[in-house]
Amino acid sequence: MDSAAPYVTDHADETAAGQALGLLTNLVNAADWLYDHWYLLALSIAVCWGVGERVVRRFAARASAERMALELVSSRHFDPSLEEIFRRGVQLARASTAMPWWAPRRAKAVQIRLRADGSSPLRYRIEGPAGGERLLSITPFGPDVTVNQARPTADKPRDHVVRAEFILRGRLTSPLREVPLTPDPLQPLVDAVADLRAELGDLAEIRLDIQRAPKWALRARRLQLMSAARRSERREAQRSARWLRQDASGIEDSMGWQLQQLLSDKPGSGGGRRLVMPPVPRRVEPAEALGKLAEDDHLVRVQLLVMCASNTEGRAQARLAQLQAALDVFGGRSRWAMRGWRLGPWRIGADHWPTRHGFERRWNLGHCQPPRANWVRLEEITGLLKPPTVHCRLPVLAGDLPTFAFGEPELLLQGIYRGPDGRERLVATYAAETLFEVGVGRAGGGKTERALAQAIGWAHAGGGLAFVDPHRDSWPRAMTFLAHEALMERIALIDLNGLGPNPRVSSWNPLAMHHGQAAHEVVEAIADAYASALAWDDASAPRALTILTAALTVLVAVNETACQAGRPEDQATIFHIRALLTDATFRKAALAAVAGRLDEETHAWWQSVFPTLPPDSFAVVLNPIARLAANPITRAFLGQPIGVYNIRAAMDSKMIVWVCPGGNGPTDRLLTALLARDLLRAARSRRDTPEQKRVPFRPYFDELITLTGAAPETIAAMFEDFRKYRCHVHGMTQLLSRLPTPVRLSLVQNASTLATTAGSKSAIAPITAEWGDNPSPDRVATMERFEHYVSLNVHGRRVGPVQLRGPHLDDIFAAQARPKDVPALERAALANAGARPLGQLTDLATQQLGRVAAFLAEHSPADATAVDLSKEKEFG
Question: Is the pLDDT at 38 greater than 90, yes or no?
Fold first, then answer.
């Protein structure tokens, strides 16, 4: 038994060795077979990878179908802090994980889309998982950013499209450049798309996908970086030791060192070589080796895709180059670089096989598969985590400010805008939105020229207007461009300057009733005009107002009687106030003829109060009328029974009326006040017309200082009320501070367009203050002549202030100039205004007192009892 045991043990060992040898032989044979049939292994691996990738893509596409989109619109005053932007980045990173558990990682991302297609300078849009909508809808930016549900974008195919993917180049651990918030970090991108032209099909879009960094990938990357850092440190230590030994050997082998040893008297100093201690590898600090990857917090992976398109060859490629240059602003020790290879003049990238298909899949589905190097901290991309701020200078595109088209009734010319690419275009606002305009600037700065260009363009488009110019200079300037046969029948010239040896003057009777006006409105308009021009009110001149109102009431009633009798040529004028107050016979006849038309209170006043008034109480009323009568022009203009001037009819028939009052003296101010109050009355009388049938009408007031000096309350009321009646006032003045307070407050409050040329800082400051001093008064004061800063309303929002060059008539309307037809235009304008020679109108005005007296005598009751006026003889 004892001798058999070793035999069994040896046999077992031989069996185990044989099995091990057989296993090894099988492994060698299998490896040899796999080596001979390597393609089968590769095919199996490829099939497994393809099946897995297909399954992952299907799940990712399914997850991507449940995405939401938000569009963020920032206000003009959006000025976020770094903390607010950082919090927004944290929200984006958190929202990227709001996906079902089964969703692949490539679908777990939030996408920032910066898009420019001509409709706006730069649209800012966020797309992400539907589960993150509640988180992303409430931003830390407050009310300065509006979050709207974004509509799907459907782009038409363009002829030329270029694509690019950007990766981070440089040290993986190095951060991007820290870009300050002032100016806006988005400014280079905005500038890159500023010259985009929608009519050429230009399109540019940047998509930044943000994805939370996976822990395992981050750990693997850190291990790789630490290992690389240690290897680098060991290599550096070995290199230093090698150089140190070489240096030591070189010194010991030198003749000088050997001679030093022979001369040295120290024992043992010459034996053997010096022992050299190699340097120890320096300890690798994780913070230094890992850089921005050292901390887990707020570390994300990003994918940056860019696409540019156009229907014009070369523009898409140029746009991509501009965006690439704009992204260079973020470059520091790490920078954004276009992914791909360059072979001479050719670049192989996202536009070519084999990467194009993957680019389009990620672009269309919103999948995020960033390169291994694209690790960033949220602080590095703060400039891209918010919409444009107040520090971003946005260009004015055709979608923001429409291009002016001659003859288009919906547009109102504003000026010439010079784009970032140097192209100039005539810009306009929509007429329906341009309710009131205010232009301020020094004399000769171009504000009147700009208003003339606007008025001429509006006239050619079929619109009606009234241009009130006390100095008359605007009429000769505009005639050349209005001398068209189609316009001549609509133009009327009311010229009260009396130029030439035999001037022709139009006519207007403020008291006339043949147009069907309401009697009380006519009385109120004239009385208010008087009070405005003469600074009357119920406290300072109550008796004068009472006398004037009573006299106007009687004369308006006389005119009503004449019109009903079919004799409008016998109507009284404003000059008959003197006869009514001072001529007893005329007064008796007038009161008798209209006894049935006066209310009891007015009749009682003439019977009981009028006789008690002292003789000198009428002077304050009659003196202004005497001044009007002493001027032959105003006497002829206001002394006709049937005036041709009818501003209400001009409004409704789209007339082009040029009114030149003739000066700014006391008499002229009274006449201007009468005209202004009549315009206010006429506009308010449009209450009898349904709103949708009221024809738009545009009064232009040049030299507001002169006009408002005569009728401040009237002009203020126009800026407050005219919008309801589709009358849109355009005012021009040199100094806003010189305007009466009610006018200044009303026009600034209601101005749809606010414009200023260069001037003194004190004169410009009230306008720039309305813009928050951006631009500053210093900047505006140094502008060139004919340059304007203008703020406008387009589609319900304010555009600007934007710098425009004032249009020059000789340039923009050169094709409409008709200098040979100017005499024909002037004849037609005077004929349409019913202008007649001054002498003829003066004779008619002189005879009118007798005509009215004769009419009253015929229409006074035969048995009428004379009014007992105890002081008639004194007044007569």
Answer: no
Q: Which amino acid is at 641?
A: P
Q: Is the pLDDT assigned to residue 400 strictly greater than 50? A: yes
Residue 27 CB partners (closer than 8 Å, separation 6+): none
- Residue 690 CB partners (closer than 8 Å, separation 6+): none
SS (H, E, C) 748-763: HHHCCEEEECCCCHHH
Dihedral sign (CA 814, 816, 821, 823): negative
- Count helices and strands in the chain by DSSP H and E runs: 31, 24
d(CA 433, CA 441): 24
For the segment 752-791, what is each residue's pLDDT rounded down to a tens digit?
888 888 888 888 888 888 888 888 888 888 888 888 888 8
Q: Which residues contact 258 (CB under 8 A, 6 or more apart)?
A: none
Give me the residue label for tokens 């297909």: 54
Does the CA dihedral 17-22-26-31 come out positive or negative?
A: positive
Residue corresponding to tokens 């001093």? 773
Q: Which phi and psi (to 5°) does residue 752 adopt?
A: -80, -35
Six-digit token string for 607:
């019977």
What are the DSSP calls for 207-230, one per residue?
EEEEEEPPHHHHHHHHHHHHHHHH
**Residue type, position 66, single letter:** E
pLDDT digit string (tens) for 160-181? 899 999 998 888 878 888 888 8
pLDDT in the model for residue 166:
92
Q: Which residues pair with 700 in a beta bridge?
A: 467, 730
Beta bridge partners of 804: 788
How far is Cα 414 from Cα 419, in angstroms, rounded to an integer?
15
> CB–CB of 361/88 below 8 Å?
no
Cα separation of 876 and 105, whole Å? 106
Residues 355 and 793: their CA atoms lie apart, in Å, by 47
Going by pLDDT thresholds of 50, 70 and 90, the confidence category of residue 870 is very low
Over 60: is that where the pLDDT of 506 sits? Answer: yes
- For the chain, what's the residue count? 876
CA–CA gap between residue 380 and residue 366 (Å, rounded): 22
The residue with tokens 């800063």 is: 789
Q: Measuring CA to CA, which residue among 817, 822, 819 is closest to residue 460?
A: 817
Q: Are 708 and 715 in contact (CB under 8 A)?
A: yes
Q: What residue has token string 């400010």?
A: 401
| Residue of 383, 330, 328 whose CA lies nearest to 182 | 383
pLDDT band at 669 (very low <50, low <70, confident <90, very high): confident
Q: Give, for 161, the enclosing helix (H) or strand (E).
A: strand 160-170
Could you tell me which residues are beta bridge partners of residue 411? Answer: 430
Q: Is 702 strand, coil or helix?
A: coil
Mean pLDDT over residues 469-476, rounded?
A: 85
* CA atoms 580, 586, 588, 589: torsion sign: negative
Q: Which two tokens stand for residue 818?
A: 């008709």
Task: Assess contact for 532 and 713: CB atoms under 8 A.
Answer: yes
Which of 720, 717, 726 shows the shortest CA–CA distance to 680? 717
Query: What is d(CA 573, CA 576) in angstroms, rounded to the nearest whole number?
Result: 6
Nearest to 224 by CA among 378, 373, 380: 373
How far from chain centre, in Å, is Cα 694? 29
Phi-psi region of 452 (alpha: psi -120 to 50; beta: other; left: phi over 0): alpha
Residue 280: what pLDDT?
65
**Contact (Cβ atoms closer than 8 angstroms) between residue 730 and residue 700:** yes
